[in-house]
Each structure stands twice: as C-alpha cells, then as structure tokens.
Design goal:
The chain is an alpha/beta fold. The chain is built from seven helices and eight strands, in the order βαβαβαβααββαββα. It has two domains: about 1-60, no CATH class; about 85-230, Archaeosine Trna-guanine Transglycosylase, Chain: A, domain 4 (Roll). The strands form two sheets. Strands 4-7-6-5-3-8 form a six-stranded mixed sheet. The protein has a two-stranded parallel ribbon with strand order 1-2. It is elongated, with a radius of gyration of 21 Å.
C-alpha cells in the first residue's frame, strides 16, 4: 500500500516494517519531491539495483523473484507453486558418525528423513521455495562403489525448519544437543528406483541442485541433471 505520509526516513523506521518483513503486507509513504527512501530500499532489495545496468542487461531470471519471501496467500484449500514436481538433489554428508540404520536407509531406499543446514541456503533460497519441494533425491556412496550414486527418488511429505538440537537419531543419524543452528528437515515418503543410477562423482563436499522429477530420470551423471532456480545452484 502506498499512502501520502511524511516521515524522517533518514533516521526513522517505517511503522509497517514489521508487517512487511513477516508477511509481505504493509505500506510505504510516497510523496512527490521526496526521496521516498523506504520504498526505494524495498524495491532494490526485491529487484536489485538496476540503475547502473544497460537496458539489454536488465532482464532478470524470472525464478529470482521467487527466491525471497513475497505475498503468496492462496485461497483456502489451494496452494501456489511455480513447479509441481520440484526436486532437491543433494548428497549425504559425512556418515562416519551417523547411526548405521540411518545410513542403510538411504542405501536401500527406505530413508524416512533428510536434513540440510539452513545456512547452506540462507538468503539464497526462501522458505517459499523450500516448502514447494515435492521430491528429493540423495547421492550416497555404496560400499565398493567408486563414486556417489543417486538411485532413489523420494516423495517429500513435509518440510520444517528446526534447530539441530531438536533432531532425533532417526531424523539426523546422530544427536547434537548443543547445536542451535537451524536445519531444514524433510520428511520422506515413498521412494521409487530410478531407471538407472545417476553418477554424482566422488567429490566429498556438499552440493545441491533443484530440478524436475520428470526430467531427473533421463540424467546419467550430475552434469546432466537439468537445473531449475539456476541462480542458486550448488
């Protein structure tokens, strides 16, 4: 909402700032002849500073507009999403200190949970995008294999943001009672085997990618996995 209001915007605070930050609904004063700093700052945050770009460079990836929280209030009983089969493809971290049954679940396609540090996606992937997930595929290192493989595609039943200390052995493979960092916790549902394992390489560092479940099955290695939200690819 824009309204004719006068404030000292250089030293003051927008009275609607908390509402804009939490739900994306609020207001900004707008007066002719004024700098309208609050509104200008908000627009730069959402769309970037385009003032120094040539006109041919101003076209943005439309996905970028979904990477920050926005007003997306769906009618009752409906939901809003850009992709109906958005899939998070990632790799299982260090398993040396994880419960064996937790690791075995990913090797056999019976895993029930997957977690990822929120710091990995902080300021790059919004909660809206994470909660849009419908599938997850995890690269693991089977015994005797020369590299990590992606063999199963899981349905994602829910996505929650919790502190690491709140996650159980079943959910994370280990307990970290002193860790207050936030993690995305995915509840995994039914899994199905991919037509052929996807080779994810022997790289130990964590990396992730968003893709389409329908297109994932045609890939044979990490580089062939089609990307969605390319500006935040890991």
């Amino acid at each position: 909402m824009l309204y004719p209001g006068w404030f000292d915007e250089e030293t003051g605070t927008n009275p609607y700032a908390a509402a804009v930050e939490s739900v994306g609904i609020g207001g900004f004063p707008l007066l002719p002849g004024r700098d309208n700093l609050w509104l200008k700052s908000f627009l730069k945050e959402k769309f970037g500073d385009l003032s120094c770009l040539e006109s041919t460079e101003r076209a943005l990836d439309p996905d970028e507009h979904l990477l920050s929280e926005s007003v997306r209030i769906a009618p009752t009983g409906l939901s809003l999403s850009r992709y109906d089969d958005l899939t998070l493809v990632d790799s299982l971290g260090n398993v040396s200190k994880r419960d064996k049954s937790y690791v075995d679940g990913f090797l056999s396609g019976t895993a029930g949970w997957y977690h990822i540090p929120a710091s990995t996606t902080d300021k790059r992937i919004s909660r809206t995008v994470m909660r849009e997930l419908s599938c997850c595929a995890v690269a693991v290192h089977p015994t005797g294999a020369g590299e990590r493989l992606i063999e199963y595609l899981y349905d994602v039943e829910s996505v929650k943001l919790l502190k690491r200390c709140e996650l159980t052995v079943d959910q994370a493979g280990s307990v970290d009672s002193g860790n207050q960092s936030e993690y995305w916790l995915l509840k995994l549902g039914t899994s199905r085997s991919l037509p052929a394992p996807i080779k994810a390489g022997g790289v130990r560092k964590f990396r992730y990618r968003f893709t389409s479940a329908a297109k994932l099955i045609s890939a044979r290695n990490w580089e062939e996995i089609p990307e969605l939200y390319q500006c935040v690819a890991g």
